[in-house]
Inverse folding.
């Protein structure tokens, strides 16, 4: 198959492209920096620079493709250019509309575990995207991955760096919020297989790793790996969220935003 992959330059997208190529498919890569990133694959990848936030960019991008793997999405806003409504919702609408115009028969949407129950703006936007995909006039499947970890991820790898470098680790609440992360290569393979599986029409797949963990558990594991003994500094969840909102209002850049704190509290 010739598969359109949107957002194939990020952690999840790159893995999905690797596995699609390994399974004998060709890929049209659609992202802002597609031409630059596509150089890492010697063959089988056709780059198309563009932005799902633009009608003009999306027009014609699915022409000649057999399937669409819609990965692109944002987990934090950077208004006014990058918003949940503009990328996760309207961007999905544009790609679905383009897939229908190109008569693509297969559409796989990468949502998020907890999209149906989460209260963060991010989860609400992914659920809105799911509702758009359900209207696709073809064979659709929705995938809801758990917290994805791999080289350069924004949560677990960041936590490892903090444990290695800092004598004090801020921990929200009691640190016992459970979540079930999935290794990026396992997710990439699962997405590639899902693209092939037309018998999954109309299904919602929850994709997570085999183990549940907590912040405290990860700090313990990373401390053992790095041979460090960091102290935990409990931070009330309400205080962390309030501080993040205040910083955003003042234009102060923090490594985590208020909405991401809500996501962590929801333990998805």
């Amino acid at each position: 198959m010739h598969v359109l992959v949107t957002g194939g330059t990020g952690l999840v997208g790159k893995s999905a492209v690797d596995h699609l190529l390994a399974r004998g498919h060709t890929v049209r890569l659609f992202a802002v920096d597609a031409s630059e990133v596509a150089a890492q694959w010697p063959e089988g990848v056709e780059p198309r620079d563009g932005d799902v936030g633009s009608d003009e960019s999306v027009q014609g991008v699915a022409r000649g493709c057999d399937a669409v793997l819609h990965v692109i999405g944002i987990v934090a806003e950077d208004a006014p250019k990058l918003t949940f409504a503009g990328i996760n919702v309207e961007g999905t609408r544009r790609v679905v509309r383009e897939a229908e115009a190109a008569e693509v028969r297969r559409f796989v949407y990468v949502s998020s575990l907890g999209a149906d129950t989460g209260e963060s703006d991010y989860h609400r936007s992914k659920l809105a995207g799911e509702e758009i995909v359900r209207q696709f006039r073809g064979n659709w499947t929705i995938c809801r991955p758990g917290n994805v970890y791999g080289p350069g991820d924004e949560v677990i790898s960041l936590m490892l760096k903090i444990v290695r470098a800092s004598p004090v680790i801020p921990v929200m609440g009691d640190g016992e919020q459970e979540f079930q992360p999935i290794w990026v290569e396992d997710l990439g393979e699962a997405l590639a297989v899902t693209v092939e599986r037309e018998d999954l029409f109309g299904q919602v797949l929850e994709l997570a790793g085999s183990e549940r963990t907590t912040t405290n558990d990860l700090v313990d594991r990373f401390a053992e790996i790095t041979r460090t003994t960091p102290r935990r500094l409990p931070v009330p969840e309400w205080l962390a969220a309030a501080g993040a909102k205040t910083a955003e209002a003042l234009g102060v850049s923090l490594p985590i935003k208020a909405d991401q704190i809500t996501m962590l509290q929801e333990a998805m």
Q: What stands out?
A: Residues 2-148+181-207 form a domain with the Rossmann fold fold (CATH 3.40.50.720). The chain is about 40% helix and 20% strand.
